[in-house]
Design brief:
The complex is a heterodimer of chains A (330) and B (348). With 330 residues, chain A is an alpha+beta fold. Chain A is 27% helix and 27% strand. In chain A, the strands form three sheets. An eight-stranded mixed β-sheet of chain A has the order 1-2-12-3-13-16-14-15, sandwiched between helices. A six-stranded antiparallel β-sheet of chain A has the order 5-4-9-6-7-8. Chain B is an alpha+beta fold and 348 residues long. Chain B is 26% helix and 27% strand. The chains are: A alpha+beta (330), B alpha+beta (348).
Chain lengths: 330, 348
Amino acid sequence: MKDLLGLLTATYGPSGNEDPIRELIENEIKDYVDELSTDALGNLIAVKKGNGTGKKVMIAAHMDQIGLIVTGIDDKGFLRFSNIGGVSVLNIINRRVKFKDGTCGVVSYESEIDDIKKLTLQKMYIDIGAKNKEEAAERVEIGDVAVYDAPMFASGDRLSACAMDNRVGCVVAIEALKRVKESDHDLYFVFTVQEELGLRGARTSAYGIMPDIGIALDVTLTGDTPNARRMAIKLGQGPAIKVKDSSVISHPMVKNLMIKRAKEANIPYQLEVLEAGGTDSGAIHLTASGVPSGVISVPCRYVHSGQEMIDLRDMMQATDLLVAILNKDL
Amino acid sequence: MKEFLSKLIEEPGVSGYEEKASQYVAELFSAYCDEVNTDPFYNVYGIKRGSGQESAPRVMVAAHMDEIGLMVKDIDDMGFLRFTSMGGVDQRILLTQEVTVHGKEDLKGIVAALPPHLLSAEEAGKAIKMKDLVIDLGLPADRVRELVEVGDLIRFNSPLVSMQGSFVNGKSIDDRAGVIMQVALMKELDKLKYQAEVCCAATVQEEVGTRGAIIGTYRLEPDIGIAIDVTHGDTPDAPKDFTHDMNKGIVIAMGPNMHPGLTQRLKDTAKEYGIAYQEEVVPGMTGTDARSMQISRAGVPTVLVQIPLRYMHTTVETLNMDHIKEGARLIALFIASLKEGWQEWLTY
């Protein structure tokens, strides 16, 4: 699982440009599913058929990541950009980024600025080392998107890389998909697009699938760093079963079932009350006449930065929990 | 009606956890409806079938039954609870509130903070932020951990109080008063001849984003929508443009979320029957179910009827009970006026 996570976090796939990451996941799962398709928005939908007695379950993990989209190239070859998803100024200063074709650059800011708190994306640029506008334009076009370039490192069970949000959820989905063998249910594993821009892929794919139950897989924040905002989630204490975030109040039936299955299988878990942030279940549960939905989250520090840290055991136990849920009655 | 309201506000129904309130509402509706259903999210639908044929419209009347509240987000070392809000709780009123924490058992507690004696003069003059408040259950930490966990719900204890005349106050009157107006509407309809199929939906999760109305409207697929909610009543310091007289009738909302032809028809009905009403212009999105009903499926022409309410999102929400009856009568007469050719009111 660790190697797969390393590969996924290093693979390009910002919101709206998910082709490389989708191709990778497609190759990884194609031998394990009954049907595999990509819909009009680019969601990758993998179906494992049940025995006809179960429910239709949508398991969603978004495969997109945040990024920087080029809006202009100045005369000296510096790139101006806007954000794709929740990019904060402080997280990108002097970070290395890469474009789809491998072109790398450094993000920096106009040094005239007197107060770093007043810094906005408009006063920042990407330096790809071009000597002038023409040279820059040969390598990058307006509309191209850069993502963090930060390969994974391990420190014991702690793993750190860019795009843990949400390649972690993708790995959980891929592993569960391989491991679930005898589910009664029709399982729709959806690797969604454009979650970072407002749950867009989940919204349309859920409407297309019309599931009975929705389960999203994503990362969540923690409260275990120095003077952190108070939150009862820690790395290494097990996957989090979401109670609520800004986008969804997990359906009590789904939440309680997750807790029950975790207890039965002796999987440690934490209960997650996330005060700001949302995930794919926010869109899934409001589809058509409503889809009872819940979320399994992997705790993650420094979300939306160039180094997001998780605990490998949380990810593995999240997979165990998902498999335990899908193998039994829903 | 006051008795119904008094009972209804006691029923637990914090957004996302409306099961108990929905059971009470379903029971309440069943006495006046042809059919009552509850969906998997606990939206309750009370259906009354008029005399109309297939061409008669299906009218959805929505009022939300969820209430704002709090949720445990952490338990500290001393056994004090840290909490977050479910819906837009007014944080200025939290200090010293009596609450019930719905743990393994119902536990009484109070919202607490450092006493003023221990604060600097500057700090003492400020409202305390939610992140700095705690709930004290009067129990040792280990016992708290046995009984309470992260994600447990917290409700305010504030029963309905009869004030002078027809005024009442209490918690969750936003929008339980609207649900009671639905019951009053059912009674009014029984006195009238009407053709429409009327579906009164007591919706869930309005306070967190009109979520019950989004799925409920899709389910019902109505021809016409009517939302009932509260709006701001007048208080001495409030700007007149945004508040409404507590004695001059219900408030009909106007703006892009509301269908102009139907809204005019609603006003004409009020004039015809001498029912007092006030007007409110909502240029942006209304903070009500109306905004989600309007854009369901291929679109639903929707109107919004509001009850003036003082001290919204506190535990002393104050309302004039007369407005419930008047609003119900207006909506009933409006529905009864939907006869053959009703589609013409929807044309531009």
